[in-house]
């Protein structure tokens, strides 16, 4: 975790909170997140970060009493796949991007990809 009182950049704090939520047994309220982080950052900062992560569609939230409880929308491999898809969607020449990606794969990863795509590949 982090040292008490040490300020982390927003991206690092989001990653820390996302990891915490992924390891949790279920959805957590901001108070539960703040408690598991050892009280640093402040509760209000945790609320702000969770709200922003929800707006970015990284988290779902459900009412729990007067607060929301937050959970990740997917696991770590799912987030990596979402990032890859996002990059692909930002480019106009999908064929070129996929070709460069495939060319850069190790033999083992290329074989795994062939396996995942099915016997006709």
From TrEMBL:
Keywords, ordered alphabetically: DNA-binding, Transcription, Transcription regulation
Gene Ontology BP term (one): negative regulation of DNA-templated transcription
Keyword Transcription among UniProt keywords: yes
GO MF annotation, one: DNA binding
Pfam families listed in its UniProt record: Penicillinase_R
Domain of life: Bacteria
Gene3D superfamilies in UniProt: Winged helix-like DNA-binding domain superfamily/Winged helix DNA-binding domain
Keyword Transcription regulation carried by entry: yes
Family statement drawn from the similarity comment of this UniProt entry: Belongs to the BlaI transcriptional regulatory family.
Name listed for the protein in its UniProt record: CopY family transcriptional regulator
Organism: Streptomyces smaragdinus
């Amino acid at each position: 975790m982090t040292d008490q009182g040490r300020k982390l950049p927003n991206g690092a704090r989001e990653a820390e909170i996302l990891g915490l939520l992924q390891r949790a047994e279920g959805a957590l309220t901001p108070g539960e997140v703040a408690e598991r982080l050892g009280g640093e950052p402040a509760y209000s900062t945790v609320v702000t970060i969770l709200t922003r992560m929800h707006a970015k569609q990284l988290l779902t939230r459900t009412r729990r009493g007067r607060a929301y409880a937050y959970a990740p929308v997917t696991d770590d491999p799912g987030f990596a796949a979402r990032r890859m898809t996002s990059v692909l969607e930002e480019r106009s020449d999908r064929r070129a991007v996929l070709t460069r990606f495939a060319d850069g794969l190790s033999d083992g990863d290329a074989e795994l990809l062939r396996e995942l795509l099915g016997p006709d590949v």
